[in-house]
Amino acid sequence: MIDQATELRRLVLKAMRENPVTVGPPPRLLVLTGAKSGVGVTSIAVNLAVALSQQGSRVVLVDADPHRSDVATLCGIRQLASCDDLALATRDVHEMLQLGPAGIQIVPGLNSQEALNNSYVLTDERFHRQLLTLGHHADVVVFDVGCADNDLTGRFCQSASDVLLLTTPDDATVMDAYARVKTMLAEAKHPDLHVLINHSDDLAHAQDVHRRLDDSCLRFLDRRIGFAGHVPHDDRVSKAAINGKPFLLRDPQAGCSQAVHQLATCLTLVDSASRAD
User: What is the pTM of this model?
Assistant: First the structure.
């Protein structure tokens, strides 16, 4: 009986993925990725999702980093489901949504090697169609794909409305950011690729980092990169992470919080302008 029930469940989920009911317009897909590990992708993804929610958007945050699953921890929630269930075809994406801070909905990340080995399930067309059904739940779906360089993250970037590439201002990391554009993000043909300079206290320096990166990408890759701004270094970011609370909620007046709010506002304005066109 258990085997029959399991098989029936798989058949039902397969039918739901192959014939989803789309309710409302498809959500905007926003992918955050990093030049390398440690640049703050997950922290910015969580706080950007909170900022977008506070500004009136319905937000789903997907922990799609195949190597680290930290979104639930930074949000201070107990993980009841994960992308393991989606990768192993035991749950539909709608069954995995958990309520997070500021009203965001969260799809927690991969937890097991078995799911990681089968993560190709996340990249196929059926999963993409499932995401489109999230229009009933969200205006924006924010993906934290970390800094992994593989087919999974490449597919997410290719299907995104916008890709936000995080780097820090040090030269070595900027070189890693250029390499990331060259090896993976160059395959994302849409024009909406932006760089965010994290841990940067000086706007002029951040603008110079963007200029150098943009010039290199234009010269060698025939690709322009937008400037998404900078987020100043703040020790309160790590303290908020330890306490399992987004820094934007813990210290809303901090410079890092204000910078993320400004980023959310800019992304919303860009989206509104593109829809008007």
Answer: 0.84
